Amino acid sequence: MREGSFLEMKKWSSLALAVTLGAVLTLSGCGGNNNNASTEATAGTNAAATTAPESSPETSANTQDTLILGRGGDSASLDPAIVTDGESLKIAHQVFDSLLEYKPGTSEVQASLADSWEVSADGLTYTFKLHPGVKFHDGTDFNAEAVVFNFTRWSDPASEFKFEGDSFDYYDSMFGPDGSRVIKEVKAVDATTVEFTLNQPQAPFLQNIAMTSFGIASPAAIQEKKENFKNEPVGTGPFVFTEWKHNDSITLDKNPNYWKEGLPKLNKVIVRSIPDNSARFNALQNGEIDLMEDLSPDDLSTLEGNTELQKIERPPFNVAYLGFNFKKKPFDNVKVRQALNYAVNKQAIIDAFFSGQATAAVNPMPPSLWGYNDAVQDYEYDLDKAKALLAEAGYPDGLPDTVTLYAMPVSRPYMPDGKKVAEAIQADWEKIGVKTVIESPEWATYLDDTKAGEKDDIYMLGWTGDNGDPDNFLYTLLDKDAIPGNNRTFYVNEDLHTILINAQKETDQTKRSDLYKQAQEIIKADAPWIPLVHTTPLLAAKANLKGFVPGPTGTEYYSEIYFE
């Protein structure tokens, strides 16, 4: 689930979403980008990768150098390549670096492990120059061969380093499934030069490469640890993994050899799992933690009245939704899906559980993202229409069987309390003759079950955009290529697929935007989801915590954080 100036990449560089922060927190030590473009090739450079950031503030023996962060749930795995959940990726973001990264507070691309890059005129070849002298946490060298190893591992279904039960869902979602890959070849030209050859142009390619899921791991550590790498990750990032107490805490220590001089500013980060929102806020008020995620809107007034704490707002860039399992009848029937859309009172849910920090969702992507179709009309709350559609579908008295509704067991930025929201929806649906049983298995099981699609009829999930491109919402979540990874509805529409693939290849943003608007019309008519809300996620911290810049993607570096 992420500052300097934006590096423009050909005509379609404006695809990146520029999210501006209000006066929330200031960023310490950020570098700038240089731009060098021509009609033949485009080169990217970034001074941030080669220029030392600002030094840490002067510290004394009494200055706090350990951050304790409270979050709603545990990670599923610490290997970013095999996960799709934000709780896993936020830890991986501290341990791994990718070739590119997002400027803090935005989804704009800048250099990271790659100092610069060039793009061929036909958009099929990307050449990256790597930062020299970088070491993995295990002391082995980061180089072009390490990049090739990682991308080969993710792309090769027969890789010996794809262990039992693992799948590289993000790679498949971003670069196409086996048999229709976007990336044709990744080649080490020399130790600090790596070349990507594509089968077809991909407009959001650089945006995709910057994602945490494609953090570069130590080949030696994967070869040695094998299946256990997911529990003992090794990257090049600002923090080194130390300990994981499952369902309790993860401890990260400062990387003393981090290649970005002067970072991190903390010596240790402890990430605690505290599922209950009130308990997590109490821990912050009592000084047991320093920073908390997913503040309940109910606690906002208390927070704002406490001068020892500060409110932090993450830029809104998400969607919460209910997904229909197309493998289960009668949810393969579009009239049933539309009926249930009409029977959800979104505004009542927002008023009851979000305290003004959410807006009703109409489409699968947020209105702040370019390509959003504001001509699409939502299914209004209308129980009579819902009943009529059920009757047309052959169910005049409602559905005969009880529906299994999966509600998230952890708080998420887009859903502070999944169980309470599910109960409100349960009550609405009962009015049209649809009875439900709510189930909330623990988070890792929840993700496994919804991916398999054997136990749930309808499930609750959400998405925080990874890279500032509509492709990351529509193709990643609702295209047939994303089955069985992120498309947990098992929804397939060939017309939609054609539009989304054409949008990936198109380099003119206006044309891409039109394609995505067409896609949203198809999705609205087919109703594979009930889009629920877009939220402005709330975080809270001690007043003396500085250097934390919340990003729209929901994943931030902790390397710039310090205590005043």
Automatic annotation (TrEMBL):
Keyword Transport tagged: yes
Keywords for the protein's UniProt record, in alphabetical order: Signal, Transport
Biased amino acid composition, Low complexity: 41-52
Pfam families, alphabetized: SBP_bac_5
Gene3D superfamilies the UniProt entry points to: Dipeptide-binding Protein, Domain 1, Dipeptide-binding Protein, Domain 3, Periplasmic binding protein-like II
Entry-linked SUPFAM superfamilies: Periplasmic binding protein-like II (SSF53850)
Ranges of residues in domain Solute-binding protein family: 108-481
Composition bias type Polar residues, residue spans: 53-66
CDD domains: PBP2_DppA_like
InterPro entries: Peptide/Ni-bd, SBP_5, SBP_5_dom
Transmembrane segments: none
Similarity comment: Belongs to the bacterial solute-binding protein 5 family.
Protein's recorded name: ABC transporter substrate-binding protein
Organism of provenance: Paenibacillus phytohabitans
Lineage: Bacteria, Bacillati, Bacillota, Bacilli, Bacillales
